What we know:
Layout: H1 2-10, H2 24-31, H3 39-43, H4 57-60, E1 72-88, E2 91-112, E3 120-134, E4 137-145, H5 150-158, H6 171-176, E5 180-182, E6 189-191, E7 198-221, E8 225-247, E9 256-283, E10 286-293, E11 297-312, E12 315-320, E13 324-331, E14 335-344, E15 348-358, E16 363-365, H7 372-381, E17 384-396, E18 399-408, E19 421-431, E20 435-450, E21 460-476
Antiparallel strand pairs: 1-2, 1-21, 2-3, 3-7, 4-7, 5-6, 7-8, 8-9, 9-10, 9-11, 10-14, 11-12, 11-13, 13-16, 14-15, 15-17, 17-18, 18-19, 19-20, 20-21
Amino acid sequence: MKKYLFVTVFIFACFYQQLSAQNEIDALRYSQVYYGSTARSMAMGGSFGALGADFSSLSINPAGIGIYKKSEITITPSNYYVVEKSTYNNNATDDRKYNFNLSNAGIVFAINIKKESSACKGIQFGIGFNRLNNYNYNGYYEGGNSQSSMINDLRDKAQGTAPNALDPFYTQLAFNTYLIDTLGSLTNYIGAFPLPGTLQRKSMNVSGSNNELVLTLGGNLNDKLYIGGSVGFPYVRYYESSTYEEMDQADTIPNFKNMTYNSYLETHGSGFNFKIGVIYRIADWVRIGAAIHTPTYYSMKDRWNSDMESELNDVKYSAKSPEGSFDYQLTTPFKANGSLAFVVGKWALITGEYEFVDYRNARLKSSTERFNQENRAIGNIYTFQSNVRAGAEVKIKQFSLRGGYTFSSSPYASNLNDGKRQAINGGLGIKFEKYFLDVAYSYIFSKEKYFFYSSNPTPVNNSLVAHNVLLTLGVKL
């Protein structure tokens, strides 16, 4: 019962981020990984744990490097286009964004050992980077709300606090623009108007990515057992700017015309992790693979600011926050995956993979904050996630036709939100003696609820559809 009450308290707060706090939303965002990398891997759903010989495997199952017989260089530019459709109080809106990026670049050196008496048939080393997540999207949400207002949320959060001790990034801005004021005592607050009934609107511009620099060493034992280990150095860049507005379009609220709250968040982070994996060739036509990923240990830095404007009694007011910054650490969950691949001669491949990750184990910490409340929220709001990837390839002479599917279950416990993610993939490849060219298309779709502010009972229902096109150029050395 106690756990149920705790989850109920956080049911709204977990989908709304007040920018001056590092919280469970940050922990999930930077823990989630959706492998991008090469066009061949993307076309086959990212299911390369038991196949190997593709640079993407260095971030999934590093034993895949042991399959390489020749040295290779790859580079993969990508064009990402995302459309977010939203419904708020029965009002539908949408927004979209393009992002051109580099999904992969890397080189693998393969040394073949021809000595027949040696159990080791090859040693491989790889260095490069893979994209782990793309944060880019634009959002636009709008609708009337007769149940609540951000002004009421500001008033409630200010209660019991003297004006000079209010949050300088949120409630103090409202006090300085007269959206809230004291009544009777310095710690009792009222709002600029008592009842909700405004048009609410929010626009968001989000950009950034999570990429991983990876160093991998692998080996081939008797063309049966392939082993590999990686040291990963992921680095995060995240930028979010938003504008929230409330306005009295019907001119029915005395003395109030509108308010605007602008906020900006910038996060930079870098970390490290270790991965180890194996692939075993049971027979010429079947391989099994397994890998474990240690948690990633991030050092993060947030910078943020905000400002607020109001128009009351035909007078305009404005206030700006100071520049905020905070250093903290994030430990992401441990991951494990298992994979199976069937190789049908030289003309077809079928592969599948399962990955397990438990987001309840993510942790925030710093030298000055204990994050007890946020870490309890992580343990109660989130659950384990199953990531399933499958793919197939058919070869006709030097041409390849590929397809794949990925599914990620919801990371939220107790049906608090949707959060499932699916992708349907396809692609083509052409291979020459020393060169190859691969192209892939991925159709990605997911749904998730979002709240304007923590006390708002009405969610924005978001449906996100992304189109990702990748082109890999490769050279055999």
